[in-house]
Amino acid sequence: MGKTLSNHPHIQIIKSVFGLKQTVLYQPTQSCIDVFQYDYTPEAGLKLERVFNAPSEKLEETVKHTGKVSHTSVGNMHLDLCISRDHQFVAAQLFRYADLMFRPITDVKVYEGKEAEWLALLF
């Protein structure tokens, strides 16, 4: 996901002195982006997979129908998630544990504006 974000035209990565700390900004709103990693049960993971595979014109309806999805301390579904603090940018990739490793089941999905606001409601 890091490569996708670093190549995104609206993302700015600011390195501090000696490169010990990085700040990631969503440029249109100058909002910091926070990174999260969550695990989910298979049922919750399937809900997220449906949301991420929904067409953009049905995204709001799908998110409202799905509701908030609770994560667990250990699960066989894993989500890498980046959300801007103002909820105007979301990037996510969902993985499933199989053959002793997490394998991607979605591409990196990037949402901006209203779509990002809807998705932020899930977490």
Radius of gyration: 15 Å
Fraction of helical residues: 25-40%
* Arithmetic mean pLDDT: 93
* Content-based structural category: alpha+beta
How far apart the termini lie comes to 18 Å
* Silhouette: globular
- Give unreliable regions as ranges: none
Task: Provide an overview of this structure.
The chain is an alpha+beta fold and 123 residues long. It has one domain. It has 4 helices and 7 strands; from the N terminus they run αβββααββββα. The protein has helices at 2-7, 42-52, 59-66, 114-120, and strands at residues 11-15, 22-26, 31-40, 77-84, 89-98, 101-104, 109-112. Strands 1, 2, 3, 4, 5, 6 and 7 form a 7-stranded antiparallel beta sheet that branches. A hairpin with a 2-residue loop joins β5 (89-98) and β6. The radius of gyration is 15 Å and the shape is globular. The model has no long low-confidence stretch (mean pLDDT 93).
What is the fold's blueprint, element by element?
Layout: H1 2-7, E1 11-15, E2 22-26, E3 31-40, H2 42-52, H3 59-66, E4 77-84, E5 89-98, E6 101-104, E7 109-112, H4 114-120
Antiparallel strand pairs: 1-2, 2-3, 3-4, 4-5, 5-6, 5-7
Helix pairs in contact: 2-3
